[in-house]
């Protein structure tokens, strides 16, 4: 639950910063919604990678525990 709240807070902070600096994005020719979409994809990718690491750690603990029981 904490991770979800932290991730949501980070996403909101980043989105607010982008909206606040939208004039700078317009000067560079980068559309606002494209930038927000890229940020959302990056956040999702980071969350997926963290979940994969967590899954691998749990698998390794289970295997190590099974090896101890033999």
Summarize the structure.
The protein has helices at residues 2-20, 22-28, 32-69. It is mainly α.
What does this structure look like?
The radius of gyration is 19 Å and the shape is elongated. The two termini are 36 Å apart. It has 70 residues and is mostly helical. It has 3 helices and no strands. The mean pLDDT is 78. Helices cover 91% and strands 0% of the residues. Helix 1 (2-20) packs antiparallel against helix 3 (32-69).
Number of strands: 0
Order of helices and strands: HHH
Radius of gyration over alpha carbons?
19 Å
- Beta percentage is under 5%
How many DSSP helices?
A: 3
Q: Extract low-pLDDT stretches.
A: none
- Broad shape: elongated
Largest sheet: none
Mean pLDDT comes to 78
Helix content: over 70%
Q: Structural class given helices, strands, pairing?
A: mainly alpha
Calculate the terminal CA-CA distance, rounded to whole Å.
36 Å
What is the secondary structure topology, with strand pairs?
Layout: H1 2-20, H2 22-28, H3 32-69
Helix pairs in contact: 1-3
Features:
91% helix, 70 residues, 3 helices, mainly alpha, 0% strand
